[in-house]
Amino acid sequence: MNFSGIYGHDKVKEYLSKAFELNRVPSAYLFLGENGIGKSSVVFKFAQLLNCETHSICHVCDNCRLFDSGKHPDFHLVKRNGQFIRIAQIQELISRLSLKSAYASKRVVLIQEADRLNQESANSFLKILEEPPLDTLMVLTASEENMLLETILSRCQKVSFSPLSREVLKRIITERFAVNDSEMDFVINYSRGRIRKDFIDKVAVLNTMRRQVLIMLCSLILENMVAHTIQIEQWVKKDLHEYFLEFTAIWLKDFIYLKMENPGQMTNRDMIDEIDISAIHADQEQLNQAFGLVIETELAVKANAGKVLALESLIIQLKQLFEGEMVL
Ligand SMILES: [Zn+2]
């Protein structure tokens, strides 16, 4: 197997293997798919396959051993420094590519999150794509195609990655992370086909938090806001505000599925026995509006609105919305 250790992505693996066997590897690929789906892992394996002296990833030849150690001098990884990939990083890459390769028959450049190239660095990188160095493969990974320059897109062969199945997610999580059985469904349901390392690292905290968000949403019209406000401030302090917004949005969606008597679609279906539908004081229309308010708040926070204020104002608006017309 050319891609042993890479779970899922059978079509991608087959496509790349074929390109390799037929000696039709282009000078540049764009790997498109969500962050955490496994694009970079495929790049590492493919780079190894391209350079293995037995053409099969033998783990014995010099090139394989360098790849296995993670220190192959002809594998160049460029990833964002802060918010963006900076021009200095692209200039450094250009100067490295001007030298001859040390061991590899095919050098590989991985530009991770190429949608984070700023305009300056994208233009500079474009020059490499326009005149690709000999025996060098560029692979760009990105989650948002429309963030890339058309001139870059047109020079890359596109390879799309599909979400991982539940079985594959479970296999990867079991092998690489310490997630107990009771938390496994929670992690997988929130994965949406990819591995969310930050989420898994905080799984116990987040599992408690989603319960607290459920209680908050169900008690909005009953309680005064002080307790909620204190709770929100603590979450923001711990940098958990994005999860608060995610849990709020997903609970609201789940309430809609519950009202539609379609619990199979719920993300929190592992908690179905703990939800009291009579505690949800809103009808479908109100829940839809509430969901819209969460999305607006998400955008405001992304645009640098004060987090505590934005989240508190969301909770107040949800309370007012649910109090508008109580439908049990
Ligand atoms: Zn080898």
Reconstruct the topology from this structure.
Elements: H1 10-21, E1 28-32, H2 39-51, H3 62-68, E2 75-78, H4 87-97, E3 107-111, H5 119-130, E4 136-142, H6 150-153, E5 157-160, H7 166-176, H8 181-189, H9 197-201, H10 203-218, H11 226-237, H12 241-259, H13 284-302, H14 307-324
Parallel strand pairs: 1-4, 1-5, 2-3, 3-4
Bound molecules: zinc ion.
Residues 52-54, 57-58, 60-61, 63-64 line the site of zinc ion.
Keywords, separated by commas or semicolons:
single chain; 328 residues; alpha/beta; Rossmann fold; 2 domains; five-stranded parallel beta sheet; 14 helices; 5 strands; 51% helix; elongated; binds zinc ion
By oligomeric state, this entry counts as: single chain
Main β sheet profile: 5 strands, parallel
Q: Radius of gyration, rounded?
A: 24 Å
Order of helical and strand elements: HEHHEHEHEHEHHHHHHHH
Taken together, the total number of domains comes to 2
Tally of DSSP β-strands = 5
Query: Any idea what the CATH superfamily of the largest domain is called?
Result: P-loop containing nucleotide triphosphate hydrolases
CATH class of the largest domain: Alpha Beta
Shape: elongated
Helix count?
A: 14
Q: Span between N and C termini?
A: 57 Å
How large is the share of residues in beta strands?
5-15%
* Percent helix: 40-55%
Task: Please explain how this structure is put together.
By secondary structure, the chain is of the alpha/beta class. The chain folds into two domains: 10-160, P-loop containing nucleotide triphosphate hydrolases (Rossmann fold); 202-324. Helix content is 51%, strand content 8%. It has helices at residues 10-21, 39-51, 62-68, 87-97, 119-130, 150-153, 166-176, 181-189, 197-201, 203-218, 226-237, 241-259, 284-302, 307-324, and strands spanning 28-32, 75-78, 107-111, 136-142, 157-160. Helix 11 packs antiparallel against helix 14 (307-324) and helix 13 (284-302) runs antiparallel to helix 14. The longest helix is centred in the C-terminal third of the chain and has 19 residues, at 241-259. The structure holds zinc ion. Zinc ion is lined by residues 52-54, 57-58, 60-61, 63-64.
